[in-house]
Amino acid sequence: MQEIKREELYKINGGAINYTMLNAIARAATAIFTIGQAIGSAVRRITSNKYC
Questions:
Q1: What is the four-CA torsion angle of 9, 14, 19, 24, rounded to 10 degrees?
Q2: C-alpha span between 50 and 52 (Å, rounded)
Q3: How many angstroms separate the CA atoms of 34 and 28, rounded?
Q4: What whole-number distance in Å separates Cα of residue 52 and Cα of residue 38?
Q5: What is the C-alpha to C-alpha distance for residues 30 and 24, in angstroms, rounded to an integer?
Q6: 7-37: pLDDT as tens digits
Q7: For residues 11-25, b (16+ Cβ closer than 10 Å) or e, as one string?
């Protein structure tokens, strides 16, 4: 196995978009959608005066 010099280590660039980042964005979008559904259901129940 070949050792990498410190100067070469500084030149390594990672990917801008990876699976972890996409997964976090997808989970955030799902959470926002779920919160929107909950708020919409609450508003609909309040305006129609139908409570459980």
A1: 100
A2: 7
A3: 10
A4: 15
A5: 10
A6: 888 888 777 778 888 999 999 999 999 999 9
A7: eeeeeeeeeeeeeee
pTM for the full model? 0.59
State the chain's maximal CA–CA distance in angstroms. 72
Distance CA 18, CA 26 (A): 12
Q: What share of the chain is helix, strand, coil (3-state, %, to 5)?
A: 65, 0, 35
The length of the chain, given as a count of residues: 52
At 12, the amino acid letter reads I
What is the per-residue pLDDT for 19? 87
Cα gap 28→40, rounded to integer Å: 18
